[in-house]
Amino acid sequence: LFPERFIKNTDYYNSLMMMYRCAIREVSTKLEVLDDEFSVKYKRNPISSIKSRIKTPLSIYNKLQRLGYEFTEQNIREQLNDVAGIRVICSFIDDIYAVAHLLAEQDDITIIRIKDYIQNPKPNGYRSYHMIIEIPVFFAEGKTPIRAEIQIRTIGMDFWASLEHQLRYKKDLGNNEQYALITQKLTECARTITATDNQMQDIKNLIGEYCEF
Ligand code: 0O2
Q1: Is ligand 1 within 6 A of the CB of residue 161?
Q2: What average pLDDT values come out for the chain (213 residues) when binned by 10 residues?
Q3: What is the pLDDT of residue 212?
Q4: Which atom belonging to ligand 1 lies closest to the Cα atom of 55?
Q5: Cα(59)–Cα(64) distance, integer angstroms
Q6: Is 122 a pocket residue for ligand 1 (Cβ < 6 Å)?
Q7: pLDDT for res 211
C-alpha cells in the first residue's frame, strides 16, 4: 500500500507546486507589462530584472516544522506565504514604491501583508520591500487564490542581501571573533550602499528637473 500512497501524495504535491508556478507566471507577466508600459511612456525601465523561485520540499518541510505544523497540503497553503517567491530588482528607490503601488492597485491582487525594510531596515542592515499577496489562478476546474511573496529592492540592496545570505548559511567561517568582524563589516557595507542608493536617487531627481525621467 505504501508505494500507492506515496505516489498519490506525490501527485498532490506536484499539483500544488504547479499552482505556485502558475502564480509566479501571472505575477511576472504583470510586472513585465508594467515595465513595458513604463519604458514606452518614460523611455526607461524601472525594473532591472525579475527572479523567481519555488521553495524546495526540504525548505518547506523545515519551515513547517519550525512553525510546529505537519507537512500537509493544507498547512503548506495556509501557513506558508513564500512557497512562490518573486524578486524584483529596480534601478532606483522610488521605482520600488512605484512598482509596489501599481501592483497593489490591480483589482485581482489582494495584499495580505507589507513589510517595509527600506523605511525600517533590519539591525544587520537588510533592506528590501516585501509584499505578501494573493492572486487568483484560473484552472480547468475554477479559480484558486494562491499566495506569493514579492521582494522589491534596488540593485545595491540585492547585491548586499545575496552576499549576506551566503554568509549566514556558511558554517565554516572560523571563530566567533572573525564572524563578528565579518558581520560588522557587512553592516558597514549596508550603510555605504544605502548612501549610494540615496545619491543615485538624488541624481535622478535632479535630472528629472530638466526632463521627464
Ligand atoms: P530564503 O532562503 O531567502 O527563502 P514569513 O514572511 O512569515 O515567511 P518572516 O521571516 O517574517 O517570515 O519574513 P520576512 O522577514 O519578510 O523575510 C522573508 C525573506 O526575506 C527571507 O526568506 C529572505 O529571503 C529575506 N530576508 C529577511 N531577512 C533577511 C536578512 O537579514 N538577510 C537576507 N539576506 N535576507 C533576508 P527566508 O525563508 O528566510 O530565506
Answers
A1: yes
A2: 72 92 97 93 91 95 96 93 98 96 96 98 95 95 95 97 82 72 91 97 86 61
A3: 62
A4: 4
A5: 9
A6: yes
A7: 64
Domain boundaries, the chain: 2-157
Which pTM value belongs to this model?
0.91
The CA angle 42-48-54, to the nearest 5 degrees, is 135
* Rg value, the chain, Cα: 20
Which region, left, alpha or beta, applies to residue 153 given φ > 0 means left and ψ of -120 to 50 means alpha? beta
Q: Is 113 in the pocket of ligand 1 (CB under 6 A)?
A: no
150 lines ligand 1 (CB under 6 A): no
158 C-alpha to center of ligand 1: Å? 13
- The C-alpha cell at 10 is 506525490
Distance in Å, CA 159 to ligand 1 centroid: 15
Ligand 1 within 6 A of 82 CB?
yes
CA distance 127 to 77: 27
One of 1.10.630.10, 3.30.460.10, 3.40.50.11440, 1.10.150.20 is the CATH number of 2-157, namely 3.30.460.10
Predicted pLDDT of residue 5: 74
